[in-house]
Amino acid sequence: MRPALLLLATSLFAAEHKIKPGDDPQAVMDAAAPGDKLTFLPGLHQHGLKKHRSILYVDKSVEIELMPGATLKLADNVCRKESVGEITTDQDAGKKLDDLEIGGAFDLKKTKVDGSELFGSTVYTIIVTGGKNGAPDTIAWGDGRLFDTPHKGIPITGDWQELSHGVKIRFANKTGHGARSLWFVSYDAPEAYGIRIGHGLQKDYISGVRITGKGTIDLNASHNDLPSGLVKNINACVLIHGRVRDVLVEGITMTDTMRSVMMYGEHTGSFLPGGKVGPGESFDAENITVQRTFTLNPKGSGYLLGHPSFRGQLRNVRCNQNYMETLLTSIEPNFNLDGYEVIGNVIKSNGQAVHCWRRSKNGVIADNLRVGDVTGRPVVQVNAPSGWEKPEPPTLRNNRNLLSDPVPTR
After folding, report:
1. Which H/E stretch holds residue 31?
2. Considering 49, 97, 320, 357, which has the largest number of Cβ atoms within 10 A of its Cβ?
3. Which domains does the chain have, with CATH numbers?
4. Which DSSP category does 309 fall into?
5. Among positive and negative, which fits the CA dihedral 170, 358, 53, 326?
6. 333-355 per-position pLDDT tens digit
7. What is the pLDDT of residues 231-271, one digit of tens each?
8. According to the model, what pLDDT value does residue 101 have?
9. Taking CA 312 as the corner, what is the angle to CA 229 and CA 393, rounded to the nearest 5 degrees?
10. What pTM does this model have?
C-alpha cells in the first residue's frame, strides 16, 4: 500500500479515547492502537508512576491532547530520598585517574544538609590534589554548597574513609591523581517523568507522537523529593529518549519540575573521558519540534537538548516561539546534538537564557528575547567544562536582552 493510502486508512480507523479525571491513562494508552487519540478532559488527573518511572509511557504513534483545564499531575510523596549515592558521570573529563568508590549509607534522618543548594538533595564535593615528594594525594571535601570544601588536606589511605552522615569513600590509588580532580556524589530521590516517549533502548523507532493542547503537566516538585540535578536521571514533564522521531510538543504548559522537556539518544558502549564512547550500538532521536509551549518553572530549568550521560545522537530539533520562566537555564543545546533551531522564544531566567554546553553543532539561535533582566546578561552562552569538546559556534541573529541591550535603530 502506498504511504498516502496507508495514512488515510489509519486515520479512517483511528479512535478517540476520552480520559476523565480518575481514569488510568496508562491503561488507556496500552489499549490504544497506533493512530489513536487520547484526550485528557478538563480536571485534575493526579497519578503515581508506572512504566519507566512516568505517569504516561508512550510506545506507539498517538496524539495526546490536554484540553484547557486538564492537568496531568504527579501525586504527592511518590519520590522519596534514598540512602544510596550516585557519582556524577564524567563531570571532570580531564582526570588522570577516575577511581572513586562510595560506600556506607546516607543517614536519611538528615533530610537536608545546611547550605545544600540542589533541590534539597545532599551533594558531596570531593577534590583530590596530587601529593608532593611521593606522599599520598590529599582530599578536600564538603557536603554543603558545590565546590565548598571546608575539610582539607586529608591523605588518601587506599581504604574506606569516613566523610559524614554515614557516607564513606575509597580511592583505589593513593597517588597519581591530577591536580584538583573533581567528583560530585549525590544523595537524593529517584527520577520521575510526566509523559515519556521511549525508554532509551527500544529496538524499533517510535514515530509520529503529538502532545498538544492548552492543558498542563505538573511534576509536583513542591511535594516530592528530587534528584540533585547532577545525576544521570532527573525529572521532566516530557522526556523523549532513544529511537524516537517525528514528535511534536505544542501549546501545553509545564510547571513545578526540574526540566520541562528533555530529549536525547542512548548508547550501549562504555563511557570514555570527554564524551567518547566504547564499541556499542547507538539509539538515536531525531526530528523533534517543541513550539508555542509555556514553561512556568521558577524553581527549575527548561529544555535539555542532548545529555552527556546518554551518548546516542540527537538530530534536527526545533524549539521555537515558546515562553519560558525559569530559575536556571531555559534552553540548553548540549551533547551530541546535530542540527537545531532556537528561534523566537521569550525567556525570563535567573540563570542562562540559552546555554550551548558541550559538543553540539549546526545550530541557529535567532530572534530570541530575554526579558526581566536589567543586569546585562547575554542571551546566548557557548562553552564547555574541563576536558570536554566545545560546541560548534551556532549561527546567531538578533537575540536581544530587552532591558539591557541598546534600542535598535533603523
Report:
1. helix 25-31
2. 357
3. 3-77+190-401 (2.160.20), 86-187 (no CATH)
4. T
5. positive
6. 999 999 999 999 999 999 999 99
7. 999 999 999 999 999 999 999 999 999 999 999 999 999 98
8. 97
9. 75
10. 0.93
Three-state DSSP class for residue 193: strand
Q: pLDDT tens across 102-111, in order?
A: 999 999 986 5
Of 189, 188, 192, which is closest to residue 47 (Cα–Cα)? 192
Q: What is the pLDDT of residues 136-162, one digit of tens each?
A: 999 999 998 889 999 999 999 999 999
Alpha-carbon gap, residue 19 to 162, rounded angstroms: 52
Can you read off the three cell numbers belonging to residue 380? Answer: 546566548
Q: What gap in Å lies between CA 48 and CA 60, rounded to an integer?
A: 21
* Rounded Cα gap, residues 266 and 18, in angstroms: 33
Backbone angles phi, psi at 122, to 5 degrees: -100, 125
Give CA–CA dist 384/378, Å, rounded.
17
Q: How many whole angstroms separate alpha carbon 285 and alpha carbon 247?
A: 10
Residue scoring higher pLDDT (85 or 179): 85
